[in-house]
Amino acid sequence: xxxxxxxxxxxxxxxxWKVSFQTVAAPVLTALLYLLxxxxxxxxxxxxxxxxxxxxxxVPGLVMxxxxxxxxxxxxxxLIQSKVTGNIVFVxxxxxxxxxxxTAYVVAAVIRGLVVGAGVWLVTLWFVDLPYAQPAWILFFAxxxxxxxATLGIIAGIWADKFDQLAAFQNFVVMPLTFLSGVxxxxxxxxxxxxxxxxxxxxxxxxxxxxxxxxxQSDVSPWISALVAGGSFAVLAGITLSMLSRGYxxxx
Amino acid sequence: MPSCPALIIDxxxxxxxxxxxxxxxxxxxxxxxxxxxxxxxGAGKTTLISCMAGLARQDSGHIRVMEHDTxxxxxxxxxxxxxxxxxxxxxxFFTVRExxxxxxxxxxxxxxxxxxxxxxARLDLTAKADVNMRALSGGMKRxxxxxxxxxxxxxxxxxxxxxxxxxxxxxxxxxxxxxxLNRQGHTIVLTTHYLEEAESLCSRIAMLKxxxxxxxxxxxxxxxxxxxxxxxxxxxxxxxxPAEFLAIARATPDGRIELLLDSxxxxxxxxxxxxxxxVRFDDIELxxxxxxxxxMATMQDVPA
Lengths: 252, 304
Fold this sequence. Notes:
Oligomer: heterodimer
Order of helices and strands of chain A: HHHHHHHHHH
CATH superfamily of the largest domain in chain B: P-loop containing nucleotide triphosphate hydrolases
Distance between the termini of chain A: 29 Å
Low-confidence stretches of chain A: none
Number of strands of chain A: 0
Largest interface: A-B, 28 and 34 residues
């Protein structure tokens, strides 16, 4: 790893760690509130998989949702802040290649996602005893999902010229896709039409595959989920690398 | 073997929509020069610097920094270049030292604290090294920008209006430091709105207007040739001006006569001819043009 890449990664990590109350503690608390409310209301009424309580079903979904949203937030907010304040020049002037740029922003965002995801998992251990049927799948979907959202965050951060454009991207694209991905329910409980629509949502496969790692049960095969998540990441990474190599919206 | 130019700008064009920001700009800056890039707002100075630094891409033409093309060999070119941007930008998450360490790392330099300490001391920032950037005054933030540009010891340093918003004392201190860097062999390219700064610091100057180079000369030559010299006389009792001078003469309210001469070379000849006509004067002074006069004259000479 080059010194430049290491430094950019360090800078991105230091940036969110310096405001960790906002970037780590706050999303963990939010996830905990979801758990308290939904588990309290639904735990005795809903059983999604045989032998799995609703609270247990919900926890992996919340962990993954927090991981995905925070991976997106990290890369997108870092870029938009740098663009709006103008300090993006500090990373554009040095001899940092576009691949190093991409790698540093993605790895830092994945790490933030993992830190928040791990935080949510730790606080929910108090409420539920989770099985870990296939830990390799847990790790695979955590990393792939984090990288996918980190990449989407780079695209959004580069594309947006203003904070409200980024907020629109977050509220009208990322939020609906995560909420309608089966975090709070199994898509098998949906009518056929909405099940079909859910299959078009790549977030569904990430949540479903991640959950498979815990319970050994899922709505679709983890291999299909892995293919969709990995393929989506590859496509977005290609688009992002192309944007960065052309200097799209960064170098006039 | 002669050294390569520090900077080669060759036929650089850049458009923003219908606006021609740079129009066939070409010039070279030799190593060790203190070079001024002047022009009114919107002349293309910052666009040219952006192209040099890779912040913008020219539509055509080439730029080489210490022989490295800024597009095809951009990594080597950027290592040779330190840029102080015009905007007062900073990263609010970090202290001054963190900012410098990070910038140093971006250029591939791991352990660079000795040089960073020296820059901090020279820019009077040592006491602020562990202070967050947000807590610094505007002048201090400007000096941190200078420090960031120097952190990788670039042979070519570009300063885009580095003294805007910096008080007089700090400005002087900054120029002492930059002059010393220049004496040590660093090439300096400066844009400034303070023309007296350019006049006292720069050995050569390019003037830009509407994206074109409209003057490119040694500062001394610009001052000597580009603007009329004014010879101010108070004629002795009863003396009158010979007819041959009437076309270039004008009277001042205080009763003196000003002769507008094309260049400094003609001053001695003019005085000799006045003497030859038997004209005596009580007082004589030469009003030398400064860079502001040259600048104004050059901008007026060139059609929009």
